[in-house]
Amino acid sequence: MMKNKGSHQKELKTMRLSPDCVRDILLVVENETTATHRTAYPSKEFDTLDEKYNPDVVLYHVIQCMEYGYFRDAEHLGHMGILIPDLSPVGHEFLANIRKDNVWNGVKGVAEKVGTTSLSALTQIAGNVITEIIKAQFGLGSAPI
């Protein structure tokens, strides 16, 4: 199924986890929330993601982030959307580990080699990639990931 011509055309497919979409969502939430400001999906803060991905895909990934615990106290409000107060400590840690593009590309490369894109695997791989980078900085050699 395609969107109308004139708008961004994206094919609706079965939902598969897109690591890039997850990372993009976490970056938006981090940039848009403060101690006194929450964000929600859908909202203008997510417009760039709705242009990059199909809105149904973004919603699916927001829900996955919520269910995996990347958001703190998120509320699913049915057809009105999802209220997101902030990233959880787990969400902050994962995003801190994958913020740099070179690290993120390394994480995705390892995930592709082992054949998984689950959030738990991506989180574990990201932690291992960071550990290897730290070891390299101290000249401690490299342990297998």
Proportion of helical residues: 40-55%
Number of helices: 6
Radius of gyration: 17 Å
Order of helices and strands: HEHHEEEEHHH
- The stretches of 5 or more residues where confidence is low (pLDDT under 50) are 1-9
Q: Strand pairing plus helix content: what structural class?
A: mainly alpha
**Largest sheet properties:** 3 strands, antiparallel
Mean pLDDT level: 89
What is the rounded distance between the termini? 40 Å
Describe this structure in words.
It is a single chain. With 145 residues, this protein is mostly helical. It is 53% helix and 8% strand. It is built from six helices and five strands. The strands form two sheets. The protein has a three-stranded antiparallel sheet with strand order 1-4-3, with helices on one face. The chain is globular and about 50 Å long. The model is unreliable at 1-9 (pLDDT under 50).
Compact overview of the structure:
The chain has helices spanning 19-32, 47-52, 55-68, 89-98, 101-114, 119-137; strands at residues 39-41, 71-72, 75-76, 82-84, 86-87. It is mostly helical and 145 residues long. A hairpin with a 5-residue loop joins strand 3 (75-76) and strand 4 (82-84).
